[in-house]
Amino acid sequence: MIFYKYHGLGNDFIIFDNRDNKIHLSADDVRNICHRNFGIGADGILLVENSEEQDIKMFIYNSDGSQAEMCGNAIRCFAKYVYEKGIVRKNIINIETLAGVIVSEIEVKNGVVTSIRVNMGKLILDPKAIPCSIECEMVKNSKIEIDNLEYYITAMLMGVPHTVIFKDQLVDEDIIREGKLIENSSFFPKKTNVNFVKILSRNEIILRTWERGAGYTLACGTGSCASVAAGIINGLLDNRVLVHLRGGDLIIQWDGKSCIFMEGGATEVFQGNIN
Ligand SMILES: N[C@@H](CCC[C@H](N)C(=O)O)C(=O)O
């Protein structure tokens, strides 16, 4: 099978063209292919599939073999891939995902995609939709206790479930330990991605994300949208924010009501063959 390896700010993916529907991956296949020592190595696998109503369809697996409904960094990689490989030669690409249709606008210079602006759709704050078991109208700066530790969380569905926590210090060991605990806590029946945010100003944040099904990654696109939205909802951020992630920067824009926009790059790393 021919594959391509792409990354969005270090959040890396293996892309297979499955328009002929011949690829069927078990959770074990996904874990083996994504393994960083015994496989190709990646945070996830993307399948390119035909869509009945949209330009193309993206299907995504996390590196632990689970399926994700959406992924912000993956969608930029996917848009660049389908454009540059001539699968969808359009500047505005409508991509079907399990979280709905995602519209990606690509900027092209000399046939190469240099930047992708994505309409990430509307975020959903209803706790039942996330899903989150806290009884309230909105999980906004709500206190939870896990293993005798208190956290103030803002939670939402941004294509996938996200929890945001504001912190003064971002320490890797704490992010890994607390991220794992919160991801698997009983408050989130379908688990959650966990975002730790340090606010630098009303227009600039540092973000570290512990991802559901993939662990501590270098960047998270849906997490960037969720974190900026949480900052706006809690009155801490303005409508356009520069997000510094471990693997690079994204720009997120939200007017507080309608769709949320993400802008950033994507990179092809290499291509290969796997049996
Ligand atoms: N890396 C992502 C999110 C991928 C999905 C996530 N691991 C989940 O299962 O919810 C992004 O860039 O948005």
TrEMBL record:
Enzyme category, top tier: isomerase
Primary site of residence: cytoplasm
GO MF term (any one): diaminopimelate epimerase activity
Annotated coiled-coil segments of the chain: none
This protein's UniProt keywords: Amino-acid biosynthesis, Cytoplasm, Isomerase, Lysine biosynthesis
Gene3D superfamilies from the UniProt entry: Diaminopimelate Epimerase, Chain A, domain 1
Pathway: Amino-acid biosynthesis; L-lysine biosynthesis via DAP pathway; DL-2,6-diaminopimelate from LL-2,6-diaminopimelate: step 1/1
Binding site for substrate: N11, N62, G72, N73, N193, E211, R212, G221, T222
Site (Could be important to modulate the pK values of the two catalytic cysteine residues): H162, E211
Subcellular location: Cytoplasm
Family affiliation: Belongs to the diaminopimelate epimerase family.
Described purpose of this protein according to its UniProt entry: Catalyzes the stereoinversion of LL-2,6-diaminopimelate (L,L-DAP) to meso-diaminopimelate (meso-DAP), a precursor of L-lysine and an essential component of the bacterial peptidoglycan.
Protein name in the entry: Diaminopimelate epimerase
Source lineage: Bacteria, Bacillati, Bacillota, Clostridia, Lutisporales
